[in-house]
Amino acid sequence: MLDWRVPGYRPLRELRPGTVLARHEASGHPVLLRYHPPSPEPEVAARRAEARALAGLASPHIASLYEHIEVALPGQPADAVGAVTVREYVDGASVRSLLARSPLPPESALSLLRAGLLALQRAHEAGVTHRGYKPENLLVDVQGSARLADFAVTPAGAPAEEATTDPRNRATEDVRAAFAVFVACLGAQAGKLPRRLRGLAPVGATGDGPALLEAVEQAGRAGWGPQWRSRGEQELARRVARARRRGEAVA
């Protein structure tokens, strides 16, 4: 665990390097503290701006960002600032942990893709791109509902072409990444999807979020009936419960 404390939060345990489960002392609610190592001011400023945008996002499909806290650290250069982001703790499991033992059924994979696309749509409307969409960042709660977490910030030292990429291109890459995670959830390849899902591949390749979201809804209804999403989430909830029993549920 990094060696600075965040006022108002009591650390409980380190979940993984740089990420700590804590309790908000005033409310008693569990939260996740994500520690960012000391960075030069330009990188801190970029993270600060994005945190401000994320804090304003209200979506049931995005893990809420509560606070962005900056601290000057003893023993570090004067221009190096440490930062901690405080986000919602999702009582459940990551999609990565749910895939550790077997792929997901189509209804569950589709429901995850739908939730991820809705999260990206809301973020893109606010001018924020994720740039790190992967199974570790898609979290499923005990009811089987999914939230997207841990949006990335382009570091100040990143290649110039990354910093200047058109946000519309980054949004397209977000959607393509979401579709790649969907394919991984099925344990398939984009060119070898199950018959009832093959029509999604060309739409996913375009990176067009609204078009893919519409195609997901149509494929779900046509392939598995009007209750496809509720059945998919029920199966996700069962898998989260099993992961919790095995001690694998850390979101």
Please explain how this structure is put together.
The chain has about 250 residues and is α+β, with helices and mostly antiparallel strands. The chain contains eight helices and eight strands. The protein has helices at about 40-55, 95-100, 105-125, 160-165, 165-185, 200-205, 210-225, 230-245; strands at about 10-15, 20-25, 30-40, 65-70, 80-90, 90-95, 140, 145-150. The strands form two sheets. It has a five-stranded antiparallel beta sheet, with helices on one face. A three-stranded antiparallel beta sheet has the order 6-7-8. A hairpin with a 7-residue loop joins strand 4 (about 65-70) and strand 5 (about 80-90). Helix 3 crosses helix 8 and helix 5 packs antiparallel against helix 6 (about 200-205). The two termini are about 15 Å apart.
Write the layout of secondary structure elements.
Elements: E1 9-16, E2 19-24, E3 30-40, H1 41-55, E4 65-72, E5 80-88, E6 92-94, H2 95-98, H3 106-125, E7 138-141, E8 146-148, H4 160-163, H5 167-186, H6 200-206, H7 209-224, H8 228-245
Antiparallel strand pairs: 1-2, 2-3, 3-5, 4-5, 6-7, 7-8
